[in-house]
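Repro:
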Amino acid sequence: MKPHPKANDLSSKIKVALDKAIEKVIAETKAKNSYMVVSDKKGNIKKIPASEL
């Protein structure tokens, strides 16, 4: 069964919007000279300065 073409189009639009939102959050956090909490590939949680992103 093939995925519906509109579903693929919607998925790509959601990905683009999500990427833009993440960039905006990082930029705002950098402007506040604050930290972000992220996880690495192993699932370890780390607190890093936003300026390092």
